[in-house]
Input
Amino acid sequence: MSVLYDGGAPGTTRFVKDDLPVAARTVGLTLRFWEIRNAERLERVIAVLNNERPDGVYASGGRLIVNNQKRIVDFALKSRLPSVYSDRAPVEAGGLMSYAADLADAYRRVAVYVDKILKGAKPADLPIEQPTKFELVINLKTAKQISLTIPPNVLNRADKVIR
Output
C-alpha cells in the first residue's frame, strides 16, 4: 500500500512515521511512504505509482493532500486502485472509503468549549479532548467502478454508504 502524506504537517508526519507502521505490521500490511511537499512532487509520485501499481493508496491529511484531493481521487479511480482517506470529503468526491473522526461531533465539542470560555473559564484549565466518535464512509459506486466487492459485514458497520 502506498501512503501519501504532507511532509509539512507535523501531526500527520508523526502519525505516518510512528503510528501507521505499527498498525500495518499487526495486519501484515507492507507500506511505502511518499512525502508530498508540493504539487510537482505529487505528479512525480503519481507517475511512479502508475508504473509500480501498488495494491492501494492511503492519502493522509495535511494541507497539500487536501488541496490536491481531486487529483489523488482521479488517479486512484483511473488506476482502479482502492483508496482510503483521512476524512469523508474525498470519498464523497469518488474515493473508496474513509475512517476518521466525525467532524460534526468534533465541532459540537468545540462549541461547548467556546461556551465555557465565553462564560469565564480559562482555556488552560480546560482538559484536552480526543475525538470519541468516528465514522466509516464507503463509496459503493467507486467499489463497483474498480471491480471491488465490499463484504456485507463491512457495509453493515459503515456510518454512511454512498450508492
Summary: The helical segments are 10-26, 39-52, 63-67, 69-79, 89-92, 103-118, 140-145, 152-157. Residues 10-26 form the longest helix (17 residues).
